Amino acid sequence: DTRRVHAVRGELIHFTADPADAGDAALTHLPDGVMLIVDGLISESGPAEAMLAKLPADTRTTDYRGKLILPGFVDTHIHYAQTDIIASYGEQLLAWLEKYTFPTEARFSDPEHAGEVADFFCDELLRNGTTTALAFATVHPASVDALFEAARQRSMRMIAGKVLMDRNCPDYLADTADTGYADSKALIEKWHGCDRLLYAVTPRFAPTSTREQMALAGRLFAEHPGVYLQSHVAENRGEVAWVAELYPEARSYLDVYERYGQLGERSVYAHCIWLDETDRERMASTGSAMSFCPTSNLFLGSGLFDLDRAHALGVRVGIGTDVGGGTSFSMLQTLNEAYKVLQLNGQRLSAERAFYLATLGGARSLYLDDRIGNFASGKEADFVVIDPAATPLFARRMAATTSLSERLFVLMMLGDDRCVAATHILGECAFEAGTA
Ligand code: GUN
Ligand code: ZN
């Protein structure tokens, strides 16, 4: 038998449905569980006693008793090239792009720089328990190569694409409608479906593309079934007003994307704050997804996401860190800020729903829930191991909890990279605290 068999023991927590719909039945909790992994896929999980009784005595076993094991986090919106401008002071979206973002993205014309940042970025995701990301590269095709190479070396699931941007940006960062199309097509042929890598057509946002480029982005999306499309929409009020000037023919900002064939399954829009009811209905009926990016929305002063409205209309929603507009790689810190954004908006976010959104909900928003998002049999064994005693305060507050719900809430409010004891990719340890 040449199969790679691996048993992992610990407190297993995962979701099989949205707690906002299914309530407590959405969560599966095995206080002492064993997950059996064969060739990187979950074959079965169950109570430790029953599982161990039927496994051969020499089965390779990793013992994480005393720790929590959750599905790897899914970050549905992040910019790898903005790693080095995280925490840059004082601006809202459009000025922040001019002052910090464009100059730093220009450096990715150098493939060596791109490679160094891509390696750091993937390691930082793993340190934070993030195992799948939908990421922007830059306008440079080699920046996509660098990110996919780094993800492939680590066997990570990564969806990424070359930024399309042919106006309203510095000349040194602009492509053209034709080169953007040709370069994207070549990258799709090179990378889409290679190992765990998937391609996303990436028009930055409507203001930085001409109508010609918007049409060709829609064409790329239509011509390659299974590829993704990622962009930004309705993040900032100044941006919304600018789009209305640039595209007076459109009913709304979202309508610009719809006119160019950019809504549909596997399209993911970051922010989605200043949308109207029709926009949200269009996203729901086309199967498009929203990425809720709370740390970014607070940091750039953009506004408050309306999760209740999205949920009521049945729109797919995932969570995004949006680094470097966002201020943390940690999905735990991002859930903390999501809770606060919703508080300011008169809404609630239970811990169960928060962790659902960071795992299975994110996977559903990416149409990857047949592969990742929970511990169902046949799924890829990407998971994060959480140390509930990672810091003095965390251990003290955890010790005072009386329910799983409360423990999960403490984890999302106080947790960050310090709580990540290990991250596994396809069953194998890809990060272990204290060794990196
Ligand atoms: N809108 C267009 N580009 C960007 C970007 O890089 N970050 C954010 N947060 N919004 C954008
Ligand atoms: Zn963004």
TrEMBL record:
Record's keyword annotation contains Transmembrane helix: no
InterPro entries assigned: Amidohydro-rel, Guanine_deaminase, Metal-dep_hydrolase_composite, Metal_Hydrolase, Metallo-dep_hydrolases
Gene Ontology MF terms in the entry: guanine deaminase activity; zinc ion binding
Protein's name in the database: Guanine deaminase
Amidohydrolase-related domain boundaries: 69-423
Enzyme class: hydrolase
Source organism of the structure: Parazoarcus communis
Cofactor note: Binds 1 zinc ion per subunit.
